[in-house]
Design brief:
Layout: E1 5-9, H1 14-31, H2 37-45, E2 47-51, H3 60-73, E3 87-90, E4 104-109, E5 115-119, E6 126-128, E7 136-138, E8 141-143, E9 152-158, H4 170-177, E10 180-188, H5 190-198
Parallel strand pairs: 1-10, 2-8, 2-9, 9-10
Antiparallel strand pairs: 3-4, 3-7, 4-5, 5-6
Helix pairs in contact: 1-2, 1-3, 4-5
Pfam families: UvrD_C_2
Protein name: UvrD-like helicase C-terminal domain-containing protein
Organism: Rubritalea profundi
Length: about 210
Amino acid sequence: MTGATVFQKLPSRLRNALTPFVETHWLPVLKNSELSAAEKLTGIDNFRILTPTHKGSYGIAAINQTVEQILASHGIDTQQVWYPGRSVLVQQNDHALGIYNGDTGLTGTDAEGNPSVSFAGTDGTRSFSPARIPEVHTAWALTIHRTQGSEYEHILLVIPPVEDSPILSRELLYTGLSRAKKSATLWCTEQSFKQTVESTVQRASGLSAMFE
């Protein structure tokens, strides 16, 4: 990572705290009608929110819901399942379509105004009707585990309170922070941070350098 890691106290009001990130990284991409599907995919994938858990106040379900509330406040109709601009993560392989578990896509509309999901590929961007693609989940926030092997320009890493995430470890924190190529923001409580960094695992020797 070329930039710094910024440490911030875990916020009690998730929507207020997430709004600046959504407005800075995602809304300009979603609102720019001049961008191609490929450019929008790249723009959305430049930033991602990571958390170790699915459930709880700081799990991916709660964060994704909060992001959609913020998008809705800016005029995006997130009440639709396939709303324009929805970021999605593929859950299983479809070799016929060339779409694989872990691929991210972005929902838009085709020439007839129907929902269409675009994916990046080696031969360019490909778009499919939602009815054709494998199962997907909303992907504004992803678990740290699901992002292994991926990199983003910027990340927001959310570490829940200890009582909400018994799987905290130094390796988990290191893995999350190492997804960022340029900068990372870390949200956690002092207790969670202490418990996380005190657990000893391999491959975490670079952790302290990220905070220098």
